[in-house]
Amino acid sequence: MKDTLYCIGSVLLSLLLALVSLRYITHVWLLAFVYSFQIHFALVAIAGCLVLLILRRHWYAYVLLSIAAMLLGHGVIMLREFEAPPARAETPPLFRLMSFNIEHENVSNAARIADFIIASNADVVNILEAAPLRPHIARLSGTYPYHIGCGAETNECDTLVLSKRPFVDKKVSSLGELWRNRLTRSAIDFDGTKVNFLAAHLAKPYFDDFQTDELVDLRSAAGAIDGPLVLAGDFNSAIADPHIQRLMRRAGFHSVFPEPATWPIRAGRLGIGIDHVLARPPLRLKSVERIEDNMGSNHFGLMAEFAVDG
């Protein structure tokens, strides 16, 4: 019986590790979900290998354990690769930003979300799948008199950008060919420092190669902008995904480590970060924290503070 269980477990773990390891050979969009969960699957594989060794001390279980440990270690290295030294503790934050995918069907919590935004003390707010907030735009305008989306620049309400300060520049455009008007570009002057913002909502990575095309457009948009730049939004992929890593390297973005887990909701802090707040020097991230109340959304929101290098 033990030998049978050992053989079945070995086959299943071998398949799991092979799927995770495919990222080092080729990119298969059907496995993008697996790539984002590399650390989680590596931990599962390590636990499985330990069970195999309890059943039978065989060399093959040690080989699987070694592979799983290497995948785990490289997963952590990938997440730490883009960590930048934070701004000095004594440096006051230049501005505060909220980014939150509130889910387009979350109508029953829209008023509560609007109240939270008003009370958040954020200078800039990015709301994804913002349609539930359309009836509350007038009330939000009392605190955030400037906005993009939901009738301003575009009538579509997937991406809504709210600001307490006027926009120096603003533009709405599309990413790829799947969805329209999911990229918002803006610039705001903070006491003499012009900061550029990109708010993006990417397709799910297992929708064929649509996300790959969107990331090419996003990289081009970031490359066309000079000066301090913030990129925030729902990427539907973790930074461990190979295509997200390519964007980070080529566009020069930094993140925090560890990133707060924003999905799935039921996993809590054991989930993954598919919603990101990224900065390009001379901007520095002072902090990125998760908004603990998801307010009916299938994502957790993020709150970030930024400073500028002297």
UniProtKB/TrEMBL annotation:
SUPFAM superfamilies per UniProt: DNase I-like (SSF56219)
Keyword Nucleotide-binding applies: no
InterPro entries: Endo/exonu/phosph_ase_sf, Endo/exonuclease/phosphatase
Domain of life: Bacteria
One annotated GO molecular function: exonuclease activity
Claim: Signal is one of the keywords in the record: no
Pfam families in alphabetical order: Exo_endo_phos
Keywords: Endonuclease, Hydrolase, Membrane, Nuclease, Transmembrane, Transmembrane helix
Occurrences of domain Endonuclease/exonuclease/phosphatase (ranges): 98-299
TM annotation in the entry: 33-55, 62-79
Name of the protein in its database record: Endonuclease/exonuclease/phosphatase
